[in-house]
Amino acid sequence: MLEILFSPETISSTVRMAVPLIFACLAGLWSERSGIVDIGLEGKMLAAAFASAAAAAYFGNAWIALIVAIAVSVSFSLVHGYAAINQRGNQVVSGVAINMLAAGLAVVLGNEWFREGGRTPQIPPEAQFAVFNLPFMSSLTGIPVVGPYLNVISGHSILVYLAFIFVALSAWALAKTRFGLRLRAVGENPHAVDTAGISVARLRYQAVIIAGILCGLAGTYLAVALQGSFVRDMSAGRGFMALAALIFANWRAWPSMWACLLFGYLQAVGLRMQGVKIADFEVPVQFINMLPYVMTVVLLAGFIGKSIPPRASGIPYSKDR
Amino acid sequence: MQTPPAIELIGIDKRFGAVHANKDVNLSVAQGSIHGIIGENGAGKSTLMSILFGFYAADKGEIRVKGEPVRIKSSTDAIGLGIGMVHQHFMLVEPFTVLENVILGAEGSAMIGPALSKARSELTRLAHDYELDVDPDAVVGELPVGLQQRVEILKALFKGADILILDEPTGVLTPDEADHLFRILGQLRDEGKTVILITHKLREIMAITDRVTVMRRGEVVANYETKKTSVEELAEAMVGRRVLLRVDKGPSRPGEMVLDVRDVSWRDRKGVLRVDSVSLQVRKGEIVGIAGVSGNGQSELLDLIAGITTPSAGEIVFENSVYGPDCTPRVLRGEGLAHVPEDRQHRGLITAFDASESAILGWHWSEALGESFHLDREKVINRCKEEMEEFDVRPPDPLLKSAKFSGGNQQKLIIAREIKSNPDLLIVGQPTRGVDIGAIEFIHRRIIALRDAGKAILLVSVELDEIRSLSDRIIVMFAGKVMGERPGDADERDIGLLMAGVTKEAA
Amino acid sequence: MGARGELPPWVDVALIPALNLVLALLATSVVFLFIGENPLSALGIMLDGALGSPRGMSFMFYYATNFIFTGLCVAVAFHAGLFNIGGEGQAYFAGLGAAMVGLGLDFLPWPLLIPLSILAAALFGAAWGFVPGYLQAKRGSHIVITTIMFNFIATSLMAYLINYWFRPVGKMAVESRAIGSFDLANGDLTGAYIPSFFEIFLGAFGIRISSSPLNLTVLLAFAAAWAIWYFLWRTKIGYEIRATGLNADAAVYAGIKPDRIIMIAMAVSGGLAGLVAVNEILGTQHRLLLEYVQGAGFVGIAVALMGRNHPAGIVLAALLFGLLYQGGTSLSLAKSHINRDMVVVIQGLIILFMGALEQAFRPWLAAYFFKAEE
Q: Is the Cβ pair C243, B350 closer than 8 Å?
């Protein structure tokens, strides 16, 4: 039991599980900080996973796969943006539609192109992302006790490092740049932004595009780096878990990373606990699996702390009050 | 050469659908002056300023800034011309610090660091020059409203405004805060800036402005040099000499007490005292009118009496029983209180419901409409039909959507609903706002008939004529307080002064 | 701009939805063309698969049964101004109630047991809807997020319960033991077993009709549609629900307590979703098993949008979606390269065009109508 909870393998698996969550969570962060609720993270991630797997199988290149995935994910973002910004439609409804559309299209197109019932062929190793070994790491792994844990931070796909870089980048951009300032403002009070002579629609489109790019990365990591192919419904609720992490992090970048690592850790432990018996008692992993959602509900209800969404999120903007 | 006016508006015209918000408005504001624009709610002041600030486009007319004809298509254009605006509802990002709010839209570069430090030193200077001190690192949402307003002024000044528009700036301020604001505005004028002050409060106009423009029903009706006018003259221009509607009304025969409001106060969510120790009584067989410029606590008082909100202090007694904690509108209706709300579109009826459904709003639990949980459609429609007939609602179609009726007919539907409940006390807010003449007469007659049937009526209206022609006693409210009580036939000027917050003793 | 201008009612009720549906179908056609299929011939296969045979039609009604329940579930919440996207979880959790009563009280005679099991399903679904409603009303948690989270919590919780409580010792498949039985030879019914029409005809009358999972629950679905219409438009609580959803300020003026309405509406909404368990667990599968809801909760959103949140519209939309599901199956059988998930695509497009983009035509139509008036 203890060796599962704290083994280097679990920690390493935590990082891998957390990466798609981090990308998706940051996507949600950008979108919702601008005032656009995005429950279509799941769908965009899934669409990107399929697009990247299909492109990797076709072109045999991971980077082309990434670009295709981003293009697909961003186009879904733009549909959402059009519905939410121009049409002032219901953002939740639009998100639900995008999730369904992505889930259906991926399987229909996958079946049409590869005739494997919706899955894509295994991506050959040369079409996957190179593993990135941090220099001088190998010399450190020999250190007893600490060594194997140090190893956890080395030997991942490049996207893993990109995820953490994006956390820092998002935190920095939101706090320090003009774009970040305006974006935060538009999610809180679009009227203030409008009267300051800044276009609300333009800012929100920029935000949903960023969300699209990040979901593209999340999906690509899932299909190309983690799984090596696309299978039906492979995002498996990660988009919603990312949403939960976002609420947990109170819509801030660094806490998002920690929340995703926590949820990633729970996923990793859940996976490794499967079928493990302690004495004669089988550990019910389902309880570990539901923990992120239960914690989010408890947090939202204000029983521990309080999570406050951007004030204008989900409300279509119109000049008249 | 003479300095051209800071702002000239020539022939500005604006319609919103059927509403003619601005009719051929001409206005000239001298540089380095404080210019007041006064008028009742809905007189078109805010629309005019929104046009000047690029929020709406005028249908017709010309704008000149410092003598130059300009086109203001967005607030960016307005800001570029040196116009700054402090909106009635603050345009602030509450979780942001003062500095962040101030630089929003004027960041200068892609990074906000330089703008923040520039704003910090600028704020220190402004604080020094004009008593405008605010902690630059405070979170705006945590500041009291008075300071939030200061942040709005700082925002405009930081963006280089030399023409400052303030829309109803004192509505949210305490008298002390308001005095402070006026000192700041005075200093700004002395520095050569131009200030446009929109308000419906006469006291403010007299206290601070150099010139004043009076608007009524979308038009400019008067222009005065403040020194050469008086509160009375302004009040008259503002309210206008309307065709006084004559209502035949016998003397009242007040009976026993039905409603007794004792020292009731109420604070809103922000902690502002909206109703301040109000006491009043209403007896059977009399109409008590509450006069006052809108926004002086009358609406809040109505909600308290209707049981929608609960007093922060004091007690309300209806038919000899004190309002308890479980005193809901439903319970009160059961005890014989009927309520015609001020805002018929947003409260009085549900526009998406058909007329018959709107006609039972609040009374839907009545056993006459179906036993226990059942709502008998036929009975609902029949009741509506009867009410429509008796109150001459047109078209008399209970199945027509409430939204499709004209304002007057919607109001008749609501009045019918409340009066037909045979109440002991009717509280009624703005019974004839936006209602055509014919319907006004009809509604007035019904209210008086109800009085003559021995019922108690509490009437709130911003139409002084209406108050005077219906009421047996008049209570004047100002800033949440009762300023005084007058008989129903009191002099109009006398009441007008009370409405402006001027008591005899002070005047 | 004339945005406040009123369009004639038939435009709102009929023309705009029709145009949106056409747009969704056009987009579907594009997808068909993209995979090299003639949309018209695909449509023909789907129509024939669902309407061309008694078997196809009974499958259509079987699917529609679930969709009526979940469509009503979304609609009731919507009338109270709430977006319940937790129908999926509510339907899943309801299976627990159905199975607990169906298995635990199986000594009772079926005329007693079946209504009790149905009631249990509804109550468990209602509970799973009530809690998010309570959290929204009393704690201010956003109902959309909470219901999403409750879907996932239900998934894990049910997986645990089925695996550890319901699975008979030694059995590999993660499912409960059989709930009740029906003897096809003589029509003997035991336990909480709602027989299919096929079973009834064969067992009781010896008549063989085409076999399908369509069972008596379909009658419950039609009854539920009528009951919800009655509830919303002919009771005082229903009146309060609609008033709150349309205008919360007016509702407060009328003495209605929005908190209370939110909780009632969510419980009713969840209870309706819970009836999916009746169709699936008691009427079709006759055992509690994993993931039996299969997205019906989400289809409910499309059904409610399309049915304009009115029970009559919902029944029609549910039948249309039943047709789509059954037709989709036929299509995937007839054309090996077309997957059954095509149905999910169409569903997504319908939600997009009839929901999120529903106002797309409005300004355009308004311009046309107001020009015509002048």
A: yes
User: At residue B505, does pLDDT exceed 70?
Assistant: no
Q: 3-class SS at B277?
A: strand
- Write down the pLDDT at residue B131: 81
Residue C4: pLDDT over 70 = no
Residue A33 has pLDDT above 50, yes or no: yes
Give the domain CATH number at A283: 1.10.3470
Does some domain include residue A317?
Answer: no
pLDDT tens digit sequence for C23-70 = 999 999 999 999 888 999 999 999 999 999 999 999 999 999 999 999
CA distance A118 to A109: 7
Structural domain boundaries in chain C: 65-322
Cis peptide leading into residue A284 (ω within 30°): no
Show the tokens assigned to A5: 């909870």
What domains sit in chain B, N to C, each tagged with a CATH number? 7-239 (3.40.50.300), 257-499 (3.40.50.300)
- Indicate yes or no: CB of C246 within 8 angstroms of CB of B349: no
Contact B436, B258 (CB under 8 A): no
- The model's confidence at residue B1, banded by pLDDT at 50, 70 and 90, is low
pTM (predicted TM-score): 0.89
Strand arrangement, sheet containing B163-167: B83-86, B163-167, B194-199, B34-38, B211-216, B219-225
Which other chains touch chain B, taking contact as 3+ CB pairs less than 8 Å apart? A, C
Given this model, what pLDDT does residue B288 score?
A: 96
| 3-class secondary structure, B99 | helix
Q: Answer yes or no: are the C-beta atoms of A243 and A28 closer than 8 Å.
A: yes
Residue A91 domain-assigned (yes or no): yes
What residues of B are in contact with residue A182 (Cβ under 8 Å)? 104-105, 107
C344–A100 C-beta distance less than 8 A: yes
Strand residues in B297-368 grouped as ranges (E)? 313-318, 321-322, 337-340
| Residue B427 to residue B324: CA distance in whole angstroms | 19
Find, among B187, B197, B192, the residue nearest to B128 by Cα: B187
Q: Report the helix count and the strand count for chain C, using DSSP H and E.
A: 16, 2
Residue A83 belongs to domain spanning: 2-128+158-300
Q: Say how far apart CA B456 and CA B285 lie, in whole Å.
A: 5
Q: Do A192 and B107 touch (CB under 8 A)?
A: no
CB atoms B104 and A197 under 8 Å:
no
For chain A, what percent of residues have pLDDT higher than 90? 60
DSSP B221: E
Beta-strand runs (E) in B131-272: 163-167, 194-199, 211-216, 219-225, 257-267
B7-16 vs B19-29, strand pairing mode: antiparallel
Angle separating helix axes A238-248 and A200-220, nearest 10 degrees: 120
Nearest CB partner across the interface for B111, out of A176, A185, A196: A176
Domain membership of residue A230 (yes or no) is yes
Give yes or no for B328 touching C (CB within 8 A): yes
C-alpha span between B15 and B60 (Å, rounded)? 10
CA R_g for chain B: 25
